[in-house]
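From the methods appendix. Each design record in this collection lists the tokenized structure first, followed by the designed amino acid sequence. Records were kept in a plain field format so they could be parsed without special tools. The example shown here is representative of the layout used throughout.

RECORD:
FOLD TOKENS (116 positions):
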């Protein structure tokens, strides 16, 4: 059984930074590649970034490259998303999940709102 709990969202101004955290529990999460996804109002949930179990292989959606950084701490079974230079188009609910994602693992997400 995997449980994923996201936190760290908030309301910020364009250009600000936020660090999202994902607390993962369960055997599958401790040995899996992990990813962040986001769902903007009225849109489908979409991939943002992923990281291998060892942390040495990362991938990013084009619009966040150079601004977002995904990382993980396997000892704490935590996954992070450092978001810098935030833009209004980054406004969304952010979720973490395994790679590939598993529908039953979706948590509540954390809301990020960026105003111009």
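DESIGN:
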């Amino acid at each position: 059984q995997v449980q994923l709990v996201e936190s760290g969202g908030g309301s910020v101004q364009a250009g600000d930074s936020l660090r999202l955290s994902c607390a993962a529990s369960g055997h599958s999460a401790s040995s899996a590649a992990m990813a962040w996804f986001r769902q903007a109002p009225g849109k489908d949930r979409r991939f943002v970034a992923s990281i291998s179990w060892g942390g040495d292989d990362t991938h990013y959606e084009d619009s966040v490259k150079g601004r977002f950084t995904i990382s993980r701490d396997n000892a704490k079974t935590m996954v992070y998303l450092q978001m810098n230079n935030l833009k209004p188009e980054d406004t969304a609910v952010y979720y973490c999940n395994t790679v590939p994602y598993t529908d039953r693992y979706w948590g509540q997400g954390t809301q990020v709102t960026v105003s111009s």
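APPENDIX NOTE: The first strand starts at residue 3 and ends at 7.
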